[in-house]
Amino acid sequence: MNAMTCRLQREAERIAARHRTPQFYVRFRAPMALARRLYFTHEEVIALREYVTPLLQECLGHGLLHSSRVGLDAATIICVEMEAARVERSRMERLMVLGLMAGLLHDISRGVENHAEAGADVAGRVLKRFSLTDEEILSVVGAIRNHEAFTVPTPSPKPAFQLLSDSLYDGDKFRWGRDTFTHTLWYMMSHQDLTPRELIEKFPWGMSGIVRILDTFRSTTGKHFGPEIIENGVAIGREIYRYLLQNF
Ligand SMILES: [Fe+2]
Ligand SMILES: [Fe+2]
Predict the structure, then answer these.
(1) Distance between Cα 102 and ligand 2 center (Å)
(2) Of 13, 100, 102, 176, which one has the fewest beta carbons inside 10 Å?
(3) Range of the domain at 160
(4) What is the rounded distance in angstroms from the CA atom of residue 182 to the CA atom of residue 188?
(5) pLDDT band at 111 (very low <50, low <70, confident <90, very high)
(6) What is the CATH number of the domain that holds 36?
């Protein structure tokens, strides 16, 4: 990333920091803390993270940071919904671990055409190294296959695995909020070697694409809290756009 893109990313972070934190990240601090604890202490999650880290290095802003955030938000949604349904703790934590693993693997084939399908196949092979049951592997694979936006997902016969699939999708699409403007955008700018003027020209088109995700959230929690995350990102995006117009 060149000095100009780095400077703009820092400015975008400053702008984002002035905007309020979306309710999902305020209200669910306890489920999020549990998701984070599992992410940093569960042996298999640690082993999978070590395995995917070198593979995720150059993924156009879809590297380890993206994948870990997707998994953490997916696991948080799982915790919120399973606690509400009074599911026993061990079953809930197991599905949260699967959510974290699905997050780490979901963009493993990001550079390939039809990356959800391709990534699902790779994930199926990778997960054989771990102590997951065949049914658990199939559920993670199915969730990854279902994570592409604007497609019709294949339903799962088991409610828990349906939740895994829906929460992976929502955790991924939550990234279309502020992460687009503090993170992904600048990797794209750097990768495509765009000047600030060229970025300005593409900006309105990019913003109109983001709002299309608003009504696609799938879990109950995602449907409730996802739109605010996107609106928060759009507000940040508008301010960055104004900053670019004023300065370039
Ligand atoms: Fe993806
Ligand atoms: Fe993703």
Answers:
(1) 10
(2) 13
(3) 3-247
(4) 12
(5) confident
(6) 1.10.3210.10
